[in-house]
Amino acid sequence: MSNFINKNINNQIVVKTVKIYFRKDNARAQKWEKQVAAWLRENHPKVKIVSEKPEALIVLGGDGTILEAVHAYEKDNPIILGLNLGHVGFLAAVREEKDFLTGLDNFFRGNYELTERMRVRAVVVRNGKTVAETSALNEIVAKHLFGVVNLEVNINDHPFQFVHGDGVMVSTSTGSTAYNLSAHGPIVMPNIKCLILKELLDHDIPTPSVVIKHDHKISIKIDSFREQGKFTLAGSSEKADVVLIADGQSFVTLRPGDLITITKDDKLIPFVELEANYFLKSLQEKFAFK
């Protein structure tokens, strides 16, 4: 790995406890977990590997695994250091396996920067009462699972858009390279704090995405949809047609009349950055820019 960020450790957080996070069904991650643990014991013996309340998470996997790790340990709010075992790895600090140990060594020696990623928070109100709250690093989506939903979208209480289609998505700049990108939304540099509003397959005239200032509020009212009851959420007997999805990790059943308020979350997620221009290099790799 070249062009790593050279910082003095006195300006950085000295990490004493880490958790190595990975999916148990990932054979490559299992191999690397053993290798990283052995390497830490030999090269940084003062760093303890723990299972609870880690100061840093070393995540072995792709962006989906990193999202899981963020949600699993959100109460502890550890530093996130991703070692990419997925495709491009927009959320990772190191893309290539050959650079994993070098990247870790740079981190523990203080040659890194922290970037704080913005999250979004959603509150669902039904008949005047809050029925659900959730947050997301990538995106919040309100969508019909198998049909059309009618939605009203307001920005700072100003009537902005009516959607007759699959639904709407509000993503962060971090999430701009995830579902938002698949839905042909704009790519936004991850250090820009903003909300991206994107309709999903509107059956009327398609509308462009809108990038909104981070301190604005987006409100989504579920007007109507045909209730078919073809799906049941896991762990519940409740039938679901329209759902609120946060990062693909949590699901909330929505009803006609529900009001969803989406705002910037107060908590920022600290990510390790080891390589200068890492995001731009990831874009070049993803899209074969020359």
Number of domains: 2
Mean pLDDT: 92
Number of strands: 17
- Please indicate the percent range of residues in DSSP E strands (runs of 2 or more): 35-45%
Order of helices and strands: EHEEHEHEEEEEHEEEEEEEEH
| Helix content range | 10-25%
| N/C terminus separation | 20 Å
The coarse overall form would be elongated
Superfamily at the CATH H level of the largest domain? Probable inorganic polyphosphate/atp-NAD kinase, domain 2
Fill in the CATH topology of the largest domain.
Tumour Suppressor Smad4
Instruction: Report the CATH C-level class of the largest domain.
Output: Mainly Beta
Contiguous uncertain segments of 5+ residues: none
Rg is: 20 Å
| Count of alpha/pi helices | 5
Main pleated sheet = 11 strands, antiparallel
Structural class: alpha+beta
**What's the CATH architecture name of the largest domain?**
Sandwich
Would you spell out the secondary-structure blueprint of this structure?
Elements: E1 17-22, H1 27-43, E2 48-49, E3 56-61, H2 63-72, E4 79-84, H3 100-108, E5 113-126, E6 129-136, E7 139-144, E8 149-155, E9 158-171, H4 179-182, E10 194-202, E11 210-213, E12 218-225, E13 231-232, E14 239-240, E15 242-246, E16 250-254, E17 259-273, H5 278-287
Parallel strand pairs: 1-2, 1-3, 3-4
Antiparallel strand pairs: 5-6, 5-17, 7-9, 7-15, 8-9, 8-12, 9-10, 10-11, 12-17, 13-14, 15-16
